[in-house]
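Before any further analysis, backbone shapes were mapped to integers, which produced the following:

***
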Amino acid sequence: MRKLLLISTALLGFAVQPDRAAAEPITLAVASVFGATAGGAGFAIIQGVVGMAVSFGLSLVVQALSGKPKSETARAELTKPTSLPAYRFVYGKTWAPGTPVAWHVRGRVLYVCYLLNSRPSAGPFTVLFDKRKVEKTGDEFDFSMAGGARATNAPFTNPGFSLPLAMYWIGKGDQTSCPARIVQECAGHFRATDAWRGRTVLWVRLDCGDDDKRSTTWPASPPEVNVDGNWSLVHDPRDGQEKFTRNQGLIVLDALRKNPMRPYRDAYLKLDTFSWAADVAGQAVPVKAGGTIPRYRCDGVLVFGEGAELEDQIQPLLNAGASRLTRIGGQLAIVPAVARPSIEVITDVTDGQPLELVRWRASDDLYTEAVGRFPAPDRAYESAETPVFVVPGAQAEDGGIAKRLVLDLDFVTDHRQAQRLAKIAAMRSRMQRQVSTELFPECFDLVAGSVCTLNLRAPYGAWNVDYEVESIAPTAGLNDDESVVIRLPVTLTETSAAVTAWNAATEEQDMLAGSFDGSGTRVAPPVTVSIETGSVAAQISGETTVPAVMAYWSASPSASATGYEWEWGTERFASPSGGGDESWRHSGWQPGGQIAKGAADDDGVFKAFLQWPQISDLLRYKIRVRAKGSYGASDWLVSAPILARGPSAVVAVPQRLTAEPDGAGAIRVSAVQANDRDARKLLIYGSNLDAPLTASLLWTDNAMAQVSVSRREAGLGNSATRYYWARARDQWGNLSDFTASASATTT
């Protein structure tokens, strides 16, 4: 390795070579590090030592995540009423959840103002109540008394009345007053000055309608509002226009310049790099079905919160383009994810610092496959996962164990873009070589994000691949009165054009489209509800046994279900001569209780217990269940009827049974109850045949253990022979076996 080059004062005019700088916009930045231009006179040396601006590469952090995606959580939080709504920017084309910020109830009519976007928006818009699209007539941007949009589709119409159940007005940010009808009908609660100027807001007038249809028309109170449309207007530095766009590069720039936390002035931004990123994001990329789509689009809701750095909060925007931020000359720049040519071939390094070579990453940072998790428009912006991208040969290379990366893409709404981003993340994790060294001044035009190629002599041939500059910190200092020394400590990370390469015909995978139907958002009941009694339903605690009727069911298929409500009822047998269900009279429903969504057992089954039912052959029980959620309650699902029974048990046989004549045409039957503490009743049967299955129940007596019972059967006639049996029954209705028969003949 050569010694560090000493540059004489005559060489201070050293600058970026224009032909190399043209290879990628990010290299243009280095020419202005000291205020010099390419080919300029030189750099000023002040106080003997000059610290050149450090260019740090801020790596895109990709983690394997689990649980609910942040976008779903944020959307759910934004629908909750509050007087201090979160500051949010809505970008691209998406659903913007409305936050109720002001409301008033007047009779049967609800008036609500929803905040949609904390800045002006482009439009047009489509309004959805509880995820049901509203078809309308009229002008939602007309705030006069006769203006506003009126719903024309069920269930929001109101036949026979002049006004529908739903009316709304939208302020795109240029409104100067509150809608006149809202002000007039809510005098003292909404004023004309309540305009929310500079914000995109929705005012609604909602009539409850008929009582019997209210839960269907308005399952949630206040209704969950989403508005579909084209949102924030974004400045494009390439043409100086303010416009609606879905371009990822322009949206990242907008968030940096207009955020409420720490807006960047243009003087602190490398605008040419953001123009480059915008060009990359707008590139046409082929898709499998034919045609093209833009390379990187960005659609979603960016919520600004306290306690986090700005760069962390806008990370989802960067993830939508697999891009990263970097600093060059004290200015913030962006590096888009696109294949770039190498602008420097490095054949030697200085001995100013030890050459550090890292060949393998930690196993925790390596992935063999990846999926993208994104909000799917055809699933009402609920989370969906792309098909799995498998890195060829990676699993075998790592020892045959698959390791999956789940990449949250909160601002990507197209599965084809999400698939490409999943591949980029997985491939980047496989780029394992890292080099730390010090370069010669001829590499001065490298900045963080530049691509270079190593071409070192043996024994470093295995390291001769393309690298991206992760960080570089040029410094200069006086060597003596006639020369200065330039130092270029650098960290390089392996890269390859294969990371961003994409062949739609072979790599894009088909994905089943969602089938969301906004009209079916009402929560669905469980598929079936079953009912049991006896031992399976009995609840035992120590020596105490509690009989019960148990209903059980699996979860509602609706994701919006948050819990369940159950009720019980009885039917009493009322027609001795009947036979079917018409012989049973229902006595009405009684409240049972509430069961939370998380109360299912390990098998995902929910259970409800009705304790101490009446055990009778003339009374049967039913249980009904319905799901409850953010869109109201489902229909009731009713179980089949069942006769209540206690737990099964073995009951001892009565101890003694005798029969003897007792006067003309009569027989005296005596029995002693079983020696069983659970015995409660003694049953005596009789028949003309010596066969218990032909016997009829004659008497049922309350009799505890070892109690004697005596009964007389009369009217039998002369010389009539009768056979008798006894059985014990416990409190749950369990019967013992028959005793041996006892017989007698009348006199």
User: Anything to note?
Assistant: The first strand starts at residue 6 and ends at 8. The chain is about 10% helix and 35% strand. The chain has a mean pLDDT of 86.
